[in-house]
Specification:
By secondary structure, this protein is of the alpha+beta class. The chain has helices at about 1-30, 100-140, 145-175, 225-235, 375-390; strands at about 40-45, 50-70, 75-80, 90, 95-100, 180, 185, 195-200, 205-220, 240-245, 250-265, 270-280, 290-305, 310-315, 315-325, 330-335, 335-340, 345-350, 355-360, 370-375. It has a 6-stranded antiparallel beta barrel with strand order 2-9-12-11-10-13. Strands 6-5-3-8 form a 4-stranded antiparallel beta sheet, with no helix packed on it. It has a 3-stranded mixed beta sheet with strand order 19-1-20. Helix 2 packs antiparallel against helix 3. The longest helix is centred in the first third of the chain and has 37 residues, at about 100-140. The protein is elongated.
Amino acid sequence: MRRKIVIVTAVLIVVLAGGGFAFMHAFASKKSAAPPASPPVPIVAGVVAQHDVPIYLTGVGTVIAYNTVVVRSQIQGQIVSINFTEGQAVHTGDLLAQIDPRPYQAQLDQFTANLDRDRAQLQNAEANLARYTPLLSRGYATPQLVDTQKAQVAQLQAAAKADQAVIEAANVQLSYTRLTSPIDGVIGIRQVDVGNIIHPTDANGLVVVTQLQPISVIFTLPETDLPQIQQQQLQTKASLGVLAYSQDNKVKLDEGELTLVDNEILQTTGSIRLKANFPNKTHRLWPGELINVRLLLDTRHDGLTVPASVVQQGPQGAYAYVVNPDSSVAIRPIKVAQISDGQALIDSGLKANEQVVIDGQYKLQPGTHVTILTGQAAEEAKAQSAQQAPIP
């Protein structure tokens, strides 16, 4: 009986041991089996570039004409001819319109005749004085007669001078019948037609001539930028360069130079007004146009730049995804100096020639492994991201 109990106990021990071994083997197998690895995330990457980078201060400006002149008449008269076409380019001295000159020519002729008459009388008086003077020494003429003749000569000389002055004034009036352009520029809309009477008091005058070459732009910058501008002017002792761009910042319109920093800060807006002149040889700047202005403050040598899409914003500020040598990504805090023309200038956080993620950041976490797209695949990924980007 005792032997039977021993045998049963031994059998149970063997069964339990076998079951435990099988359970432990199965558990160990499940524990050692790793979950399937996630596939690498496709991204578009670029390299941190190093080159000279211009530093700009950006503002909004309004184009104004270098000179604007309302051509007015200085006399009253009837317009007998218009000698320009609206929108035409003109030069200084070009005839724009002709006022009827006949009344003023007639006055000039009358004053010229008066001068001729007085000169003839003067000539006769001088001849009489020349005859009377020798007779005085011989006693054939009285001193009173000679003095009277001298006075008459002086009177006629003064009359001739007065006639000459009147003639000069008449010539000036006659010249006013020719309305000419006082500057080089472009003609605006005509305000008076042929046959109308023009007056010096007419509010609109004949036409407006606007000078477009050169041309000016008045723009504003925050008052906090003023110390930088003043410091740069003192250092360079030369005019700072200014670039004019279209409102969408896609087209560079012209290059000019800073000519004025206003002598006061606008208290209502906390900004400073500046003025720049541009050659405007292609007439791409037009008076009244609203444009974007970039003031070239400095040039950073060997600056680090990345595409603007590399820069991401988080609770702690700007950051970028950097691609590690093992094809994983890491978050790197960065400081951005400026973003211009789709390029971000980096103050700190990146090094030259490092690989950074340009597109596909929304799929990434620190440590994520990536595969870098190139060529057509990269272009398609950028286009797809642009379509999925939220509208600001």
